[in-house]
Structures are given as C-alpha cells and as structure tokens.
What we know:
The chain is α+β, with helices and mostly antiparallel strands.
Amino acid sequence: MLAYLGRYTHRVAIANSRLISLADGKVSFSWKDYRQNRKAKVMTLDAGEFIRRFLLHTLPDGFHRIRHYGFLANGGRNDKIALCRQLLAVRNAPADQEAGGDPLIKCEIPVCPHCGGTMRRVEVVPRAGAHDHPFRCDTS
C-alpha cells in the first residue's frame, strides 16, 4: 500500500499538459503506450468515466501531496545544497566527524539500502500478538 500511495504523494495523477480537449461531454488526453515503445496516443472518454478513473488516483483524506521546490527541487539539488553550505559557511557533517568532531554528538544514522539516503523514523507500528485480535475474514 505504501508503494502505491507513494507514487501519488509526489505528483498528480494526470498533468494539465496531457489534457487535449473537453467537448460534447468527452475528455481527450494523451498517454504513452509502453507496449509499443512508449508511443504517444490519444484516448477519448466520457467525462464521467474520466472523472471516475481520475478519482482512483487521488489521495485519501489525511494524506498530502509532497512538493519540493527551491534548493530541494530535483534539478541540480546537489549543486544548490553545496552552494547553500558555502554561503552559510557550513562544512560537511561526515567530514567533521572524521576530523575528530565532538564525541558527544556521535549517533548511528540509518541509511536506505536501495538509494543510500538517510532514513528517519516516522512512526512505530507495534507488533500484534497472536492473541490480540481474533482472525476476521473480510469477504467484501
């Protein structure tokens, strides 16, 4: 579920640039056919069907889309962060630790095994015991 929702916390389901026309209760939009080498195609749907499909990709209540802009935007992020550090006269944290930084500020920071980014704890989900909840089969 997190992988599915994660795709929609960083972008919208369909960009305005992909919408082509709205006429006679029908919506036309472009899409890429990945089975035919990413060939661009146009699909036309009834407005009700288009909205139904669009709403399948909106976030549930309580979730918010994440947008990064400024120095955290993807385009040239490393260069912008380096410039920010230079302007603020801040050295790299790992270099400070290697150079014999303050031993009281030493902690283990978990690293993502896939992307190498810094992981931080957002929520702790307690383990459910075998007898906490009886097994319920949802047949809906």
